[in-house]
Amino acid sequence: MHLKLGQITTIVISSSSTAKQVLQTDEKFFANRPSCDAANAYNHSQFGMPWLPASSLWRNLRKISNSHLFSAMVLDANMNLRHNKVRDLLNRVHKSAETGEAVDIGRAAFETILNLLSTAFFSVDLADSTSDIARELKETVWNLMEEVGKPNLADYFPLLRKLDPQGIRRRAAIYIRKFMDLFDRIVEERVRLRSEISTSDSTKDDDMLDALLNMMPISEYQLDKNQIEHLFLDLLVAGIETTSSALEWSIAELLKSPEIMSKANAELEQVIGKGNQVKESDITQLPYLQAIVKETLRLYPSIPLIPREAERDVQVCGYVIPKGAQVLVNAWAIGRDPTIWDNPNKFLPERFLESNIDIGGRSFEFIPFGGGRRLCPGLPLATRMLHLILASLLHSFTWKLEDGISPENMNMEDKFGLATQMAQPLRARPVAIIS
């Protein structure tokens, strides 16, 4: 689809074959993302990995993410941390089950993932269930993602950027500043503590912040304190919102389809056994659970629109995409393409049981986290968290809708930002499964 949005030529791609050409075959000509005025707030576009051009700085940040933050070795080393945070979540849900109180699934997932990431990043629990900080941060995260995802006149009429006619950049700056002030305090305190201990102890990689601070003196990484804080902003905001939204959609679809929920519970009981806690190592033995996660991400991709910019005139499927054109790969539409998927709007995890379709951006009919060199760097951690939390909630509790709501009249409307979120937060009542 060819659109002229203001002064910007926009090409929307909704087929998997064309997506493959843009994201893989000719990706060197589509390596950059189009300019986004909201990302200029707080000068974030000069430091944020999603917005940087494919430069040496961007490549270094990708290398740091892939090798030092999200490698299999690092994630394996942090496995017990994830198990402990999920156990904390189950304890909180047990209290709701005892009182018969409904759980806000999105908020519970958000708090757990926020604590998990903040502990892994800088050994701090940011979501204390006794305070309002998790609610405030959730609102700030979604507000920021909503502002960045809004249609912005300044993006389509570059002459308007100085005016910020809709106030999007101004509001985004307010939300980013809240995070940067928080990160600045955390980093400054860590630098102070490191200066007070011995050199050998101060260079231990106790968490991601320590690892990044240890890289600062090494010139090849091009890291400074400001860069570290912007990197945390990208990783925390994207990791929390996309993963918690996916978890909320998963449970919503299971509540809407009780027979699928029963199959998932049966698999968990057979593999894990009653009374046992789910571990990450169990996930490979849970093919139906993995199929549920894939099916959720097919219908509600973490990145519904994947933006790219043409570096030069490029011929794609017989058409010339002009230099400077904005290209939007519509992962949401590709995931519901009736030429690829039978009953594309129906939640059917079984479709993935005999399929080799990969979640990591190599199967272009299924690209929930993007594809090519700009594939979401936190994907390995996001998938581990999503499977572990979902399996644990299903194995420990039976879930029921609130009174007056049936599977037939559930509100499954979504709202678009940079991620696909439920328009109405999902609430469900947990009933503890007696071991």
Automatic annotation (TrEMBL):
Question: Molecular function (GO) terms listed?
Answer: heme binding; iron ion binding; monooxygenase activity; oxidoreductase activity, acting on paired donors, with incorporation or reduction of molecular oxygen
Q: Which Pfam families match?
A: p450
Q: Does the keyword Nucleus apply?
A: no
Alphabetical keyword list: Heme, Iron, Metal-binding, Monooxygenase, Oxidoreductase
Q: Which residues bind heme?
A: 376
Q: Is Transcription regulation one of the keywords UniProt gives this record?
A: no
Cofactors: heme
Gene3D superfamilies, alphabetically? Answer: Cytochrome P450 (1.10.630.10)
User: Superkingdom of the source?
Assistant: Eukaryota
Coiled coil segments of this chain:
none
Give the matching PANTHER family: CYTOCHROME P450, FAMILY 76, SUBFAMILY C, POLYPEPTIDE 5-RELATED
**Record's family?**
Belongs to the cytochrome P450 family.
For this entry, the protein name equals Cytochrome P450
Tell me what organism the protein belongs to: Ficus carica (Common fig)
Lineage of origin: Eukaryota, Viridiplantae, Streptophyta, Embryophyta, Tracheophyta
